[in-house]
Amino acid sequence: MAPSAVNRQDWVFTVVRDRALLDDVSSKAKAYMTAERPLQLPEQLYEKLADAKFHVFYRAPALIVVSGPAADPWGAEDCALAAENLMLAAHGLGLGSCWIGLSQPWLATAEGRRALALPDTHNPIAPIILGHASAPPAPVPRKTPDIRWIG
Ligand SMILES: Cc1cc2nc3c(=O)[nH]c(=O)nc-3n(C[C@H](O)[C@H](O)[C@H](O)COP(=O)(O)O)c2cc1C
After folding, report:
1. How confident is the model at residue 57 (pLDDT cuts 50, 70, 90)?
2. What is the predicted pLDDT for the residue at 39?
3. Gyration radius of the chain over CA positions
4. What's residue 19's pLDDT?
5. Do residues 146 and 99 touch, judged by C-beta distance below 8 A?
6. Residue 87 to residue 129: CA distance in whole angstroms
7. Is the C-beta atom of 102 inside 6 A of ligand 1?
8. Which atom of ligand 1 is the closest one to the Cα of 104?
9. Which domains does the chain show, CATH number per domain?
10. Which of 19, 36, 51, 87 has the greatest count of CB atoms below 10 A from its CB?
C-alpha cells in the first residue's frame, strides 16, 4: 500500500532465504566494498568490512531486495517507501528488520544482479533483512529535526 509516483507500483521484491546464498552475497559485498570503495564511508566501517567475522546481513534468515526501474526518475523513492512499509509491517508482526546499504553496491554489479536474478531493467534499491531480534533493541537516539517555519 506504499504510495508510488504516478501509481506505477513498478517495484520487484526478491526474497532470499537460502543461507549459503546469503553468506556468499555477504562475502562478495564485503570484498567489493573494501577493494573498490564505491562509497565514502568512515574508516571504522572499512575496518568492520575487513573483519572475517562480520556478516553484512548479521546472519538474518531472510533478505528482501526491493528493486526499482532504472528508467523511472522516481524509482528509488518508490522503493524506499515500499521498504519502509515492509519494515513497519514486519515490526507489527514482531520481527526485526534492517536496511543493509553495505550490500547495495555489489548487488548492483553484473555479478550481484546475476546472483539474485534481479531484472536487468531494475536497480536494487532497498536490501532489507528480516528475522527475530535476539533482544528488543534499545531505541537509537534521534536528533531534533531541523524544522524551519517560513510563514
Ligand atoms: C539507506 C540505509 C542504509 C543502511 N545501511 C545499513 C547497513 O549497511 N548496516 C547496518 O547495520 N545498518 C544499516 N542501516 C540502519 C541504520 O544504521 C539505522 O536505521 C540507524 O542507525 C537508526 O537505528 P534504528 O533503525 O535501529 O532506529 C541503514 C539504514 C538506511 C536508511
Report:
1. very high
2. 93
3. 16
4. 98
5. no
6. 9
7. yes
8. 8
9. 9-131 (3.40.109.10)
10. 87
The answer to whether the CB of 99 is under 6 A from ligand 1 is yes
Cell 555489489, residue located: 106
The pair phi, psi for residue 40, each rounded to 5°, is -85, 105
Report, as an integer, the average pLDDT of 127-142: 91
C-alpha cell at 138: 534499545
- Lookup: cell for 151: 510563514
pLDDT on residue 134: 86
| Per-position DSSP letters for 89-118, written without gaps between them | HHHHTT-EEEE-GGGHHHHTSHHHHHHTT-
Angle 58-50-53 from CA coordinates, rounded to 5°: 40
Distance, in Å, from the CA atom of 149 to the CA atom of 139, rounded to the nearest integer, reads 28
pLDDT surpasses 90 at 73: yes
Taking the centre of ligand 1 as the mean of its atom positions, its distance from the CA of residue 18, in whole angstroms, is 23
Q: Which amino acid would we find at residue 44?
A: Q
Q: Is the CB of 32 under 6 A from ligand 1?
A: no
Distance CA 82, CA 16 (A): 17
103-112 tens-digit pLDDT: 999 999 999 9
